[in-house]
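Because discrete structure vocabularies remain unfamiliar, we first show an illustrative case, written as a sequence plus integers encoding its fold.
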Amino acid sequence: ETRGSFLFYSTTSLSHTVMTEPASNGIPAKRIYAFRQGESAGGKHLKELLGNKGCLLCEMARLGARVPPGFTITTEVCQEFVKLGNKLPEGLLEDVKAAVKEVEENMGKKYGDAVDPLLFSVRSGAAVSMPGMMNTVLDLGLCDANVEGLASKYGKRFAYDCYRRLLAMFGDVVYNIPGEEFEQQIEVTKKEQKVTQDIELTAESLNKLIKRFKEVFSKHGKSLPQDPWEQLVQSISAVFLSYNTPRAIKYREINKITSIKGTAANVQSMVFGNLSDKSGTGVCFTRNPATGQRGLWGEFLPNAQGEDVVSGVRTPLPLTELDRFFPGVHAELDQNTRRLEAHLQDMQDSEFTVQDGVLYMLQTRNGKRTGLAALTVAVDMVEEKLVTTDAAIMMVEPRHLEQLLHPTFEDEQAYRNAKMVIAKGLAASPGAGVGKVVFTAEDAIMMHKKGETPILCREDTSPDDVGGMNSAAGILTQRGGMTSHAAVVARGWGKPCVCGAALAIDVRNKTLTAKSENGATHVLHQGDWLSLNGTTGEVIRGKYEMREPEMTAGNLAKFMEWVDAKRKLRVLANADSPEDAATARKHGAEGIGLVRTEHMFFTSPERIQTVQMLIASTELHSPAQAESLSKLQAFQQADFEGLFRTMDGMVVTVRLLDPPLHEFL
């Protein structure tokens, strides 16, 4: 069947259909779905069963992309695995062997062969994409008995490189041997050989590294199974176990991912980006994930396997240089990914491998993106007639719009590439802030009066700091959480704030000390430039360009017109001052749903002091109470007049004075 420019192949020639017990509707449920170029019984309609990765592998195969053949074990098998006390269900090994036989016939190789073995990867894949949350093992099927056979056919360096990768991944993923122990041995070997990159290690060095890796196994009372089938079974079990690792559970909690069955296990024949200088691997997006600009964007590494690109062990090259290494591959990759984007109706994030100049597509998924990119992609794809306005609305998440309501950095990748992120904390209030470091509220006020922009850095904040907080372009604290004083006040004022950051603030000596992820120690003094990303929780050394939000023009205005045409609810704002009310009107609010009258007193030190005087005089039954009330009445009357003028007849709901004392004392 043809649809547009895509060719859908019949799936009838795929013989392999492994069944389990009948499903509740009486139709036998399949445990395994096979895929190869042009053929698969699976597809995107089976996302819950095959996981996001598995269903899209099947979909790519059906579209005719050159996908290394393999098969997906369903999420229902993962459920069975958990119910059986983390044991694979009876009969699954026979099912797997039948599926492997089909791949062997397609590839013309035998799994575990002594001379030219077929090797497999095993990757996880739940129905919702969880990058880096679950585990992968590559190069399964290698062992002491066949590594020399592989070496005689393709070269010793390639064979030993694959074997050391298998040892490290299997040890880490299956046996929970800390990955750092393998990394330490790599560093020792590189120092001995006086090289800085893994790619520079000779065959002899890699063989020595294999022996060292085996010693790491022995130290933990383990050894790599020499039976390729045992490797495969243990790796499939490890993938199912990885679904309930602490980091996977935490990721699902943070992203509110519920109601998914488990993870699928994707078993796929290996293609090798580390086979030769005519081979490589990379990651690409159909549009820039930072800006949304259309066009192939990404990175690759020659003579490498996929983990090398994402792990950061080598510095990748931009895709613009792809044809210099692999002539013609860039155009083919661009064509493949454009077709995928049009078919799947969203920006794609794809992984690929080039083996001896031939392009293979390893996986694809909807690409994660910034708020700016999400908006640009949604609007552009409507204009390109790839999606409807309804679909475009659903492509932009609430958190994306939250980013767009605040200043953002022009290029977040710039400071990350420069390794200028010196600490991370809680993203307590979104937006970007750039200014000079100050350590007291008084210094922030003074710097602001001079026409400069301060970033207020405190161990934590109190009501006494509000004047400085109001003068600052951003707030950074060493202590405190998402509901701390700093976080609450910053969010109320729309200022970027990072709380509980991993750094040390010394107010007396006016220094800020942090250790970045690469181990470098940074010491900042008063007046040094500092940037805050309140949306990501990043603390950045230096001064970086920002982009102000555009609420009433461009793509956001167009997008909100589509939303307004569909929505059934009125949108009211929280606003506590005439300035807040003006901003709300500018952003399209149809009234104020809540005026929190106690927030009217946060805007200046004088107002805070007046409230404190009121509380003290009330406690002491002092006649100063009347004076304090009189001052507060003047503040409030001016604010309410400003609010009502600004809203010009729209609904305004006022909550009577309800001061939580900890916000003032």
Q: What stands out?
A: DSSP finds 23 helices and 32 strands in the chain.
